[in-house]
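Still learning folds. Look over my entry:

…
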Amino acid sequence: MSSILTNNSAMVALQTLKSINSNLTQTQNEISTGKSVASAKDNSAVWAISKVMEADVNGFKAISESLSLGESTVAVARQASETVSDLLTEIKGKVVSAQEANVDREKVQADIDALRDQITSVVGAAQFNGLNLVQGTESVDILSSLDRASDGTVTASNITLNRQDLSTSAGSYGSGTSLSANATASAAAVVNTANTATLTIATDADVSADAFSLSVAGSTISFAAGDITGDQDAAAAAINNAINALGLSGVSASVSTNVVTISSTRAFEDVDLTAQKNGGATGVTLSAASIGERAENVTFSSTATVNEGDGYQVTVGSTAYTYVAGNNETMEDVARGLKAAVDTAGLADITTAVAQDSNGAWQLKVDNDSSSLAFSVVGAAGGTASGGLFGLGGIDVTTDGGADAALGNIETLIDTAIDSAAAFGSAQGRIETQSEFIGKLTDALKSGIGSLVDADMEAASARLQALQVQQQLGTQALSIANQAPQNVLSLFR
């Protein structure tokens, strides 16, 4: 049936053409924008995912900039630490040369002062964008990542940089919790008297007829049978003379009838003793197997932790010498810091050393070669940390005692600078690795976003040509369908 009111063929052709035009418009949009999902109406789920990922990409770009800034800051600190280490090594060379008695120590000290001032200059200038990692103790966080959980929550991750304080500041003693229980002084005074042990020859011991040997600090005196004539008193006198003839530093002997008293003024060294008669101990008696070191000591707890701001004071005579621990320091650092504090004072006849006892506890040893001085130790939390190169300013090689003390202290300072450079080097390597990872991760996210929303240009090109042909055919079909009512006119001619 033909109708001039309803043209079904034209309606079908029109709907087909509209569909073709819609697809053609979509394809043209893909080609012009380069995206198959350009807005939420194209594919809301994919569009939402892509926008979240694009936000993460922008975040990672900011993180990359943060890492670059952090890497530059750490590089400056590492270079400063290495320079300080080199300068301290030069100072050590000067200190070693000052051990000789025939050098002009005043000129050597002038060179040391110049190098010390240069270290201060390097530490002060080692900043990047106002941040100096070789001064102070506060840690610094560098934004390193954004971590998105499966539930959509985002947390920031940081690389924490610990400052390595290379200043020479003394710090300040705190007034917080008492730490005195962590340090114990061996005596209430440091005295200059010798420590002793006795060798007693029994009154019924026939030393003259027997072989006899005595070892003192690794040196041995021996008498064959018949070398000693007389009674036990004569034997004691001969042994006394033989000990003094050894010429041992800090070791001497005296005799009273049949008793030989062996004395030692060695500050930081025990003197071991052994005695035998005919290969045994019968008839000779030593009061001790060794003579202890003369120095008094402060023994620090081997189990207590050390926190930043923990300060300890050692009093020698009427003066208290202070060291306040910094971040990540140990009791060894405290002991060496107190040694530097005492040495810096340049006390006449006072020498110091740091060592561990048989239980592994660190000790500060103080020896006095003059009149008796009071000796005590206290501790308190809540102070301001001393600088990592504390004691550098007190190096003085113009005296024998100062030159000796400087030799030990400079090693501690060099170790501090080397540890600082190593810590910064490790941190810089980690930042570089993270920065490289962030770059690769950003590229991977961009690639993933592209796979979700980017148009396949080859397919779009082929589809465009096909749709253009379909559009032409659809237009022709609609034109033919619109011609149908014209045919009805022929029925009325």
